[in-house]
Amino acid sequence: MHERKRRHRKLFWLFWLFWLFWLFWLFGVLALLLLMLAADLLQDRFGDAVALSGPAGCTGTVTKVLLYAAVAFLLDQGLRNFVWDVAYPRLTGTAAPGVLQGAGSAVIYTIATLVVLTSILKLDTGAVLISTGLVAGVLGVAMQNTISVTV
């Protein structure tokens, strides 16, 4: 009985340490985002009277980029926690392959990066997408024989 009580006490403290770490991290990120948003709103409201120069002048852009990054992170964690750890093993009876999990994460973060580059930073990403597609096609054709021998 004493061993069981000690094991539960360790689990309790590990649980609280894990959740407190993420809770403090979340509050820190939220506080940073709120400060940046407040600076951006002050500049919009009062204009040149509180004009920010230097790194503080890009608070709106930084806030938007951080928000897109936070949404991408939450989507990735949701995909890992609900799909790869719960739904996939329940449907197939095996654990999700690491390659599949990594590909899902890469797709989420790539989409978030492209959205930030096109909508916030106003960069043309068409050339990058076309060249990436061409390189992927060439690599796929070049590796076709190797993959067929391996499988």
Word description of this protein:
With 151 residues, this protein is mostly helical. It has helices at 2-46, 59-92, 98-120, 126-142, 144-150. Helix 1 runs antiparallel to helix 2 (59-92) and helix 2 runs antiparallel to helix 3. It starts with a helix and ends with a helix.
Provide a compact summary of the structure.
Helix content is 83%, strand content 0%. The chain has helices spanning 2-46, 59-92, 98-120, 126-142, 144-150.
The helix-strand sequence is HHHHH
**Biggest sheet architecture:** none
What does the radius of gyration come to? 23 Å
Mean pLDDT: 76
Shape: flat
Separation of termini?
Answer: 52 Å
Instruction: Determine the strand fraction and express it as a percent band.
Output: under 5%
Uncertain parts: none
SSE class: mainly alpha
Helix content: over 70%
Count of helical regions: 5
Beta strand count? 0
List its traits.
151 residues, flat, mainly alpha
What's the structural blueprint in terms of helices and strands?
Blueprint: H1 2-46, H2 59-92, H3 98-120, H4 126-142, H5 144-150
Helix pairs in contact: 1-2, 2-3
